[in-house]
Design goal:
- By secondary structure, the chain is an all-alpha fold.
- The chain has one domain.
- About 80% of the residues lie in helices and about 0% in strands.
- It is built from 15 helices and no strands.
- It is globular.
């Protein structure tokens, strides 16, 4: 069961959400309060936010379980793991159901049930991914990358959307004022989460190609060969590097962003070389793990953002 739930991945989800709240949203709202003389605070209380985090973690845990239940053949070959299905289905529905209920409750607390639709979309996406699209050419990769991107995005939806309607005095005092600038930061983190996950999913497809072929999956390396899959991974890595520097040159031209971008770029360039040379499943697994660590390393950028906001370097 521990392998099915993947506690480390769930911990990263929770850390990502708290980083968005404490290192991005709270410092930005503090900056707004200082410049407008209107005290702007988070709409969600700490316990409400904790329930929101728990809802995402539970849905994520359910997603891992349903994914493993549908990967028994592949896992037996690729990972030498057997998954018992009878216990897993009930746990999956229980975790997902409680997660959706918590999301609806928190939405009700801030007067908008519709906010929980983002959880519904992710839960449905994870189910279709596990049952129909994981073994398809790239579709499954995009679905799981979308779901990963929704982890920081859900914080923006629950935190920023209610803010737009909670401070009419700012709209009256400052023409065309909105909290969209907060949302832009969250979107940026979501975009990078999407790209790094897309890289990792491409690597995992090649790593698992033997088991996927035995299970009659139709992933990119199974359908078109490992060489084509390599080109795809290299293309996504190249696009990620381009995105990092596009953001730097057009939106965040500070020294910290430049340094952080340079570190990520060096890591990605190394991965391009390693992917080009990779031949064994172990080598692909190593690169997949490194990609995961690099994505998690991106959270440290939020620490720098908080520092720069508090010291007036940003905004």
């Amino acid at each position: 069961m521990m392998r099915q739930i993947r506690p480390v991945n769930l911990l990263i989800m929770a850390a990502t959400m708290y980083a968005m709240r404490w290192l991005i949203i709270k410092p930005l709202l503090f900056s707004v309060s200082s410049s407008t003389e209107v005290e702007v605070v988070n709409i969600l209380t700490e316990w409400q936010f904790a329930l929101l985090v728990l809802s995402v973690v539970l849905i994520g845990a359910g997603g891992y379980i349903i994914n493993d239940l549908n990967d028994r053949i592949e896992d037996a070959i690729n990972k030498a793991v057997q998954v018992k299905s009878q216990a897993g289905n009930g746990v999956y529905f229980g975790l997902t159901g409680v997660g959706l209920a918590l999301a609806a409750f928190v939405g009700w607390q801030v007067a908008s049930f519709q906010l929980a639709l983002i959880h519904v979309a992710v839960a449905i996406s994870l189910w279709f991914y596990a049952n129909y699209f994981k073994g398809s050419v790239l579709i499954g990769n995009f679905i799981i990358s979308f779901c990963t991107a929704m982890v920081p995005m859900v914080v923006g939806v629950y935190e920023v959307v209610p803010l737009q309607f909670s401070y009419p005095e700012l709209v009256e005092k400052y023409k065309n004022f909105s909290f969209n600038f907060v949302a832009y930061w969250i979107i940026g983190f979501s975009l990078m989460a999407f790209l790094f996950t897309l890289i990792r999913e491409g690597m995992k497809d090649v790593e698992d190609v033997i088991g996927d072929r035995a299970a009659n999956k139709k992933t990119l390396p199974v359908q078109y060969g490992v060489k084509v899959a390599k080109y795809w991974v290299l293309l996504v890595i190249f696009g990620t590097i381009g995105t990092i520097w596009h953001i730097y040159y057009h939106y965040l031209s500070d020294k910290f962003t430049m340094t952080f971008g340079a570190i990520l770029t060096l890591g990605l360039l190394y991965q391009m070389y390693a992917v080009w040379k990779a031949e064994t499943a172990k080598q692909w697994h190593t690169q997949s793990t490194i990609s995961k660590l690099m994505g998690a390393f991106g959270l440290f950028y939020a620490v720098g953002v908080a520092y720069m906001i508090h010291n007036g370097i940003l905004l």
